[in-house]
Amino acid sequence: MPTQHHDGLPDRLTLSNIADGALYELLDRELKRVAENINDPNTSEKQKRRITVNLEFAPYPDRTGAAVSTSIKSTLAGVKAVESTMYIAKKNGEWLTFPKNTKQTEIQFGMADAVTADEATKAN
User: Fold this and answer.
1) At 121, which helix (H) or strand (E)?
2) Residues 66 and 94 in one domain
3) For 27-39, what is each residue's pLDDT tens digit?
4) How many separate domains does the chain show?
5) 49 burial via Cβ count (<10 Å: 0-12, 13-18, 19+)
6) 98 CB contacts (<8 Å, ≥6 apart)?
7) Whole-prediction pTM value?
8) Which of 67, 55, 1, 47 is nearest to 26 (CA)?
9) Do residues 51 and 100 share a domain?
10) Would residue 3 count as lying in a domain?
11) In a domain, 13, yes or no
């Protein structure tokens, strides 16, 4: 919010008016991203999130002012790893992958096509 000074000077540079208020807009956007990440059940509830505000000042050669660059970066919790299994079998010379053990499903392979995990590892 711009403030009026009784000394007749223009408004001073503040967080609310730097880059015409863009800093607040950027911060608001990152706060929403953090809130969404915290509420995502696929992320850790214990990992801390972070928002970093960066203001960079490049002085003018005559030192009368500076160009100001504003950026905001958030560090969010990553998605939790999900454990699963994968089974492999060879059919007609082609390696196939399955979410369940093919020996326990109705998919029937001939004995010549049956491959153990150890054999599959050796084949690669």
Assistant:
1) helix 117-123
2) no
3) 999 999 999 999 9
4) 2
5) middle
6) 86, 87, 88, 89, 105, 107
7) 0.61
8) 55
9) no
10) no
11) no
